[in-house]
Structures are given as structure tokens and as C-alpha cells.
Amino acid sequence: MPASLRVLLDDGSFPLRALTALDDDALDRPVSWVHSSDLIDPTPWLESGNLLLTNGAQFSAEPDADEVTAYCRRLREHGVVGLGFATGILHDRVPDAVVRAGDAAELPVVEIGERAPFIGIIRFVADIIAADRATRFSWLLDAQRAVARAAVRDDGLREILHTLSRLLGAWVDLYDAVGGRLSLPGLRSAPDGVEADIGREVRRLLERRTAASLTVPSAGGALLQTIGQSSRLRGVLAVGAAEPLDPAGRDLVGTVVALASVALEQQRQVQTSLRGVRAGVLDVLLAGDDATARRVAAVALGGLPAEPYVLGVVRHAAATPGVLDELDLVSSDPRRLFPAGRGDDVVVLFADGAVAALRALVERRGLAFGTARHERGTEVADTLRRAAQAAREAVPGTTRAYDELAGRGLVGALRERGGDVLARSLLHPLDALPAAERRRLRESARAWLDANGAWDPAARGLGIHRHTLRARMTQLEQLLRRDLSTFAARAELWAALELDDDRG
User: Fold this and answer.
1) 3-state SS of 368-435?
2) Mean pLDDT in the chain?
3) Is the pTM of this model over 0.70?
């Protein structure tokens, strides 16, 4: 237990009496040391957290109120936790002006009676501080052993960070070498209100390109520490709790950073090899040999998602720094999530429950993500083509499912890709006609195309003679400069009419 005014007052070893109102914050404020002085301004010899003892030689029996007010305010602004005023030596009682000034400055004033020796109070506090340091040192040794044990587990890096969070009761975030926050399932992250400040300071640290640490006052004194050597930074570890970390907590973070540096380097080497194996398994899947791919994956990687699963394509993910590292962290179970690089993209096979983590990743990284459902008996290569098409249609930072594309139809896809502009260009010659004539030609063309180019059924549907219909289509061919005897020209006209339907 740290030394505090509460401990001193409750112990009973000294004749102490509080003269000012004391709330829990004042009573429990840690005392870092005890100093005695009768100077009117002792602050040059004091540190924040000190308890000051005085005989009151600097004050007369009825001291000047302004002088005492300035004295108490000066001590409180310097971080002094309290003023112990001895009576029975120079003053029979603590001057009322001192008590009033202490109350006004929120500086606790405690009377020390019966000529109690200051050295006894100093030694009492020093013993508590020494015992507290010994306790914290013992805790630190135990904590370091715990993180060392975590480091040798299968997923060493993740276990180290989970252990650190538990021991400190803190949130922990890991950032990659370009300042991207890595997703670590099950690990408590920074609150939303401070995440932006943390990210900004992380990027500032990385821009220095040297090993360093800093605290973020706006985030409750959160500690940021770079990982790796100055010439090759691997990322930044961010740790924050309800209160700023004490020296033992900071030392533990330093231990974790050292272990994380080793773990990241080892993990990078292992993951580079595993990425090659995953890419090979994907190639075998795309070649149609599902049995061999699953056998290799089971032996070398731990398996593949069971069919049916979702296949996703994250565009340019392999070429974006840090994304592969983050995918490695979230894909601890390949039967749930299996990523593999393919050119600049990353192909991901995953169970339905893993989609939330992937969506969060692509949104945070501003990547385009397309998905397609893979059913048993379907060629993986076909599913990949569908997912790749959905990825090409996705806006950066969003997810697009192939089913959405299929549901809108070919015309819908053309419309989204600017096909309506081309349709209006093709049909533009009709704009020169009177509205009634333009409408007749368009209706005639639709009826004829719907009848697969058969003249009699189309004419009957329009209520006109087939020769009239032929004349209209001949006129349309001339205006559009298209030979409608060919299938390609008919298909183009049909698509143009569908896309430009709102102008009919």
C-alpha cells in the first residue's frame, strides 16, 4: 500500500489532526517523500507528491493573510500533497490564516502535536515507500515470468499481449510499421474516445524512424513504445489504464516490447514460409484437386474451411504494407479463416462467422472486398472469378457480395458502369424526331425484339400490318446506322433500349 495521508492519520503512531476538510482524493494521494522546511518558498527543493513538514518559523502568530494565501497556493500548484504544521515549538496552535488558506488552495493542513519528531514521520513514510517498492519489484518479477511463459506458447505474440493486459488491467493495442492498428480478437482495445489521439501519436513516433516512447496525456497517460530496432521498426505497442502506469508497469511494458520484437521477427520468418504454403494450397484448389489441397492443408497448416464456405478477394491487400501481418494475426484457425496471396490481391476462404473481422479490416484499410459463396461440387476457380468480379465492383473500404451483382442482372451491371451514357449516345439520332414518332419507333423495336425478330407476332401485338413494322425498322436502321439483321446489332439495340428506358 503506498504511503498517504490516510495511512499516516489512521496509523496512530503520531499525534496528527487534520485541520482542513479532506476528501478521499486528498487522503489517498500517494506521498513520494517527506521534506521539512521553514522557508517561505521551499518549492525549489520539493517535488510533486512530497509532504512538507514545518515548525512555522516563517510565520508570525498572526501572519499576513495574503502572504499565507500565496504560500499555500504555491505549494499546491507545485504538487505538494499536504502541509504538516508542528505545534508546541514556535506556535501554540496552527494560525487560523494558514488553515483558511489551506482550505482555499485545497492543500491539506495537518497539525503535528506533542513536539513529535519530524524524523519519526520521515522514517515511517520511508519504510512504507521501501516496502511498496519491494512489493512492486516482486510483482514485476512474477509478471515478467508470466509473460516469458506466454512467449513460448503456440501463439506467443498474442499470448504476451493478453497476459500484459490482464496483469495491468489495461487496454492494449498493437500497430504495424506503417501505423495501422492490428486486429487482435479477444484483446481489450483503446476506448473510441482516445483511439484517434493514439493513432496520431503512433504515426508521429514511426516518422522518427528511431526507437522511442512517449505518453499521451489526452489518453489518460497511455504509454506508447516502438517495437524493433531504430533501423527496422516493426510497429508500436500502446498501453493504457485508468491511471498512468507506475515504474513497475512501465518496466513490464519494456519487457513485453523486447519479447514482442523477438516474437515478431520469428513470426515474420515463419509466416513468410506459411504464406508460401497457403499460396500453393490455393493453386491446387484452383486446379480442381480439392482432396490433395485439403490433405496438404491439414498436415502443414491445420486444415481448410469446410464446404460450403465463403470465398473473398481483397484487392491490392498483398501489396498494402501491414495487411498480410494483420491477416496472419486474425487467422490463427485456418478452418475458420484461410488467407492466401495471389498477385497483389489476397484470397480468403472463411466461415460465415469470420466476415465481421474481415469487413472491419477492409474498412479501416480502405480496401475493396468482394465475396462469393462456394458450394460443394462447385469449381473453386469459378467461385474465385465471381468474388474477383464483386471485388472490382466494390468501392474502396466496402464489401460487395457477388449475389448482389447477380441479382441486379446484366443490365443493372451495365447501368452501374456507365452503360446508360453509351445507350443515350447510340439512340441520340432519335432525339431529332417528334416525340410521337420517336415513341412509335421505340415501341416497334421493343415488340420486334421481344418476338425474336418475327414480323407477324410483333405486328399483331402492335395492331399494325407487318409491312408497316418493316418500314419502321428500316427507318430505325437508317437513323441508327445499324444492320439489325445481325444478332450483335439486335442485342446492342435491346440493351440500349433497356438502359435508356426512362427516356422512352
Assistant:
1) CEEEEEECCCCCHHHHHHHHHHHHHHCCCCCEEEHHHHHHHHHHHHHHHCCHHHHHHHHHHHHHHCCH
2) 87
3) no
